[in-house]
Amino acid sequence: MIRSALRWLLSSVALLFVVTALTFVLVSLAPGDAARAILSSQSSTYTQEQYAAMRHALGIDQPLPVQYGHWLNDLVHGSLGTDLFSGQSVAETLRDRIGPSLSIILGTVVLSGLVGTWLGVVSARRGGLPGRIVDVVSLVGFAVPNFWLALLLVELLAIRLAWFPTGGYVPLTQDPAGWLRAIVLPVVTLSAAGVAFVAKQTRDAMSEALSAEYVTMLRARGLPERAIVYKHALRNAAIPVVTLLGLLLISLLSGAVVIESFFSVPGLGAQAVEASGTHNLPVITGVAFCFTVVVVVANLLVDLSYRWLNPRVRAR
Questions:
Q1: What digits encode the pLDDT tens for the residues 68-117?
Q2: Pair (221, 299) in one structural domain
Q3: Residue 137 near residue 195 (C-beta atoms within 8 A)
Q4: What is the CATH number of the domain that holds 305?
Q5: What dihedral do alpha carbons 169, 175, 180, 183 form, nearest 10°?
Q6: What is the Cα–Cα distance from 62 to 68, expressed in whole angstroms?
Q7: Rounded distance, CA 229 to CA 166, Å?
Q8: Whole-number Å distance between alpha carbons of 148 and 124
Q9: Are 104 and 189 in contact (CB under 8 A)?
Q10: Is the separation of the CB atoms in 83 and 285 below 8 Å?
Q11: Short-list 301, 260, 294, 298, CA closest to 97
């Protein structure tokens, strides 16, 4: 157990280091920099001396390894650096952005998990028409582009029926009902493919579990079918589904960028797009750091789920 914890900790630290270092390198390769963006916003013309002075003031005239070393030093001291444009700490800049992103991502994972698992279990138990329906749902979910589905949902549910807002975000602590209405359309949009993936994986895993010998023995002993399906078979079939949900959560980090921009949700994805346009390196690195932490936590939750679902994994 201790060895597993140490291995997870070392791999997490290595992942954070690699992602943030690559972020510094990739941003530096993009044309332009924050100094030009700031000077261009102040005046249409500027001298080379002004440009050099601005680069020095921002600290981006130093070699890239030195800049990254300063960022790591700030991280060790509990800081994610300073926003090059506002002058406030990156942590403060991103603090209000984390809630909207997590609301959409976690809402999508929960909805995909619940609906997809239910569809998969029903399909595996009944076969025939329900199985074909799951195949159709999976095919549609894979094929429909997110932006097209978002346009359709906004046109139908937000504009014509006025059930939900067309965009924006309301904090959960401020108005729970408004928060729920604000995230429904983004979550449903992202859940289309997620439900399809989970339903197909659950159906395949449940079909295999229900045909196992231990299920036949449980039925011979007279256990209720509901208990066999949900207490025994589903628990054994849940491991690949949990793996898929972990991968889904990670993939949503990139998918949420487009959806946040479409629905005007002030999340981390929208902040990353804005910071990329102005070459705001500390903010971009801060967003990458937050996304990496989500990946690390997701991997930890998947591993803990394995140990809970399978005692053999727990005993290693």
A1: 888 888 888 888 878 877 778 888 888 888 888 888 888 988 998 888 88
A2: yes
A3: yes
A4: 1.10.3720.10
A5: 10
A6: 10
A7: 41
A8: 31
A9: no
A10: no
A11: 260
